[in-house]
Design a protein that fits this description.
about 725 residues, 3 domains, 13 helices, L-arginine/glycine Amidinotransferase, Chain A, alpha+beta, Immunoglobulin-like, elongated, five-stranded antiparallel beta sheet
Length: about 725
Amino acid sequence: MRDKSASGFNRSFVMEEGRKVKQNRKSTFLLKKGVIFISVLMTIAPFCRAATSKAQDLVADLRADVNRDGEIYLGKASSEKDDKKGQTQWTLQRGALVLPNLDDDSDRCGNTSAIQNISVTKCNDAADNVINGNQDINDLAPLKLMSWPNASYNAWATISIDEPAQGKARLFIYRQGGWQILPPNRRITALELRKGVDIRLEALDVVRDKRLWDGRIDVIAKVKKGTQSVEDRVRFLVAPMILQSDLLPMKRLYLPGMPWGQDEPSLNNIGGSTLPLAPSTQDRIDHSAFGYLSILDAAKPGLSAFTQARVTLEKLGLLGSAFKAFHDDFVRAALKAHKKPRIVDLSTFEDPWVQDMFEMAYAAAPASDGKLQVMHLAIRSAQPQRFSAKTPLLEVLGPNVGIVEQWADDSGMLIKNGDYSLNSTGNFGTIPPYTYKDKSYPLGRLLYGAGEAWMQTGGGIIDITHSGLAGELELKQRFPDRSFVRMLRAQGVQKPLVIDTAWLAVGHIDEIVAFVPADTERGWKVVVADPIGAWSLLTDMANEGLGATKFLSKLEPWAPGLVPEELEKTVDDVLNTNRLNRVQKVANAKIAVVIRTLKTETGIRDSDIIKVPVLFDSSYFNPRSFTALTPNAANLVVLDKNAVAIAKQHGPLVDGVDIFESAINQALNTSGLKVRWVEDYVQAHGGSGEIHCQSNVLREPGRLSRWWEPRSSDRHH
């Protein structure tokens, strides 16, 4: 406007001068008129410039915790404390963070008798448009629209979320003494602008597919007055899910409950009170006459020969005593840990395979006073058909513990969408942090199993017909749900490593490897199942004239359950079984490939590998897929930096000492670890799993909560 007025004035002045030359009779009048016109313009111009200047002095100053010190800096620019620098970008070194608000601070699903009919994804704080109390507000990221004391009466503002993240987050404003939802078109008044505005950002989800959304949330403040406007923005990143390492301290130990009688309240839940959890007839196959499902039947519910045979055990009450032995041993072992965890018994009904229902992860962001806000996340297995997981998950859910689900619609039902057993979360774990060559993984790496294996053409790997093989054997790829793996990859902080587990009937990584604390530069070692080592122990016995020793020991006649005659087998009987000899060689070759992969990727040496004896056998439904014949010592649970829990071996005795337990003790003790033995032969081993399969642990991330502080070349936004 100012330039335009000046130009008009100049043209007027030239025109007046022209008329003065041509029309002398009007010259005096026109000259006076020109002078008056100039005088008026000269008088008005400063006011026009002042008004225009005021219009251009709109203030939009939006701030967040960009430097991650847990506070929003409200002062003037400072090189040390200022949060303005780089607020529109996000890097590992700098940028605002927000947690995915997927926990349940209001216990919305804890006190309903219809709990099984509620989707677990609806039981979180992001499912409503309110802030659920003082705990919930800590899960939201603070923002501050700084005060503009000179805001005129007709100034106003909006604060909104930019297009890519709309539907992934929402905003709240502190107004009239409380927090209110802030829609994108809701105006912030001039009075509020003068005082300053407190805002909270709530993230509604985790990153699932970076092609659709990469986790960035741009919050935009627009201040307007008439036709003038100015804006400021801050970029947030949703904190990634980080799969916890087994080296971290135990905080909670989740164990299965009794296989029957769980129409009574569960023994424990996160809140410490009991819940009236009744079985849902809609969600569960009627297994009321059965005990536990096998680990494979639980992954894809069906009544296999194994599950049907467990009827006898339950009718005799033997599963009850087996459960008590397992549970009591596990609790005693856990309570001897350096930091005693909270024991949480879940309402698992006939599906005790707690490890296969969910994998624990965490997300973290800075909080006030230099603290951190940590949210634990139970990532549910990609098994929509596993209805038995719903109640235990809802018991795990609570303040600072959320649930995440991700799977294809027909996940595990068709081979193109993943193998249902490999979808179990027992097939997912974490290599602890390490640096090798020029690559650093300060948060460790995701580890999972896949590969090529001989499978039945008629119905996957389980004998769903109950009458032998479901079809001919055919070489096929086995892999987990692709969308589930894509979600884990999308977190961007734990580059995945895949090992071959397809040759195992169950197909889980926890059947062959585990990571344990060690006093080494790396801080950990790898425990690996050793079938040839186990076979050699038996061979040594036979060579010493002890081949007639019973192969199994310290078991009651009923304990094996399905085949009581197994108690009569000797060491020689096992060694003379050609099938078993062949299986150990094949299993050993498969495990050797896994070891080579770990050496290549992590730099571990032979001195970093702890081999524990485990014998394998072909599965009863597929001679080319294997399960553990002896209680699997690689399927362990790390209790603390000095101890692990391992299944009792019930192996051959020499001078009253179990040869397998002796070898395991020696292998672990040499690395500074004490073994605490847990009875699981009937409870877990008979169902093709062990103690790791029937437990889960929530661990405290400690220094790894500050996931942004280590520098990793793999992470950028």
